[in-house]
Design goal:
- By secondary structure, this protein is of the alpha+beta class.
- It is 59% helix and 12% strand.
- It folds into two domains: 98 residues, Beta Polymerase, domain 2 (2-Layer Sandwich), CATH 3.30.460; 104 residues.
- The chain is built from twelve helices and five strands.
- The chain has a five-stranded mixed β-sheet.
- A hairpin with a 3-residue loop joins strand 3 and strand 4.
- The two termini are 17 Å apart.
Amino acid sequence: MSKRKLCFKALVGSHNYNLNNEFSDKDYKIFFYPNFDDLYEGGQYSKAFVSDDEDIEYHDIRKLPNLLYKSNVNFMEVLFSEEYEVYDQELYSKIIVLRDELAKMNLPYLYDACLGMYMQKMKEFNRDKGKELPGKTYKHAMSSYRILDFLDRYQKFSFSSFKQAMQYDAKDPVRELLLNIRLGEYGFDQLKEMIRKKEQVIRALEDVYKSVEVNVTLKEKFEQLIKVSVKTVLIESFNGG
């Protein structure tokens, strides 16, 4: 990464949702500008590093517009982090100003993407339950419920606060519920019934999400913002900046 200029580093995952426990590692995503070799070779570099207490993913900033347009919640949350290290204040400031609009840019896709994540977590829940891996099973159950709860909370905030929908206040009873799921306080059958009822609530919200028009203009504006920033950094590098 030494040959690439960094944009910003954001805390993500359980620490960002206020759902971490004593065993939770800190997860970060770092975005960087491509260098000339990246452009010449046509690739978008990504790299993951894992240590005893931190997991860090590096991503080419050019990936961000498409990831946000496709409403990938795992990347959308970098716009609403509780902890940042900013290396390019100019770009970071321009992104943060747009974050609430970017979050609701493609609500139909957001709904489908979250349901897809939910169904994947339930597959993992059933898989690890069969393997008698209770720790992983309860973690998948918590993730499944949390993803559904996010969709519920976001529409209750009228799609105005992704951050509040994603993060849990210390006094929020749903936070306690999620942490208890993670700790294995509920039996598997009870968990399945809780999640099934939550899924019914979310299925009923499909028309609410899918009736909102996709903001293609914002998509194009954000793509142009990233393009101009990448161009500026490359010109500076050629000029010895």
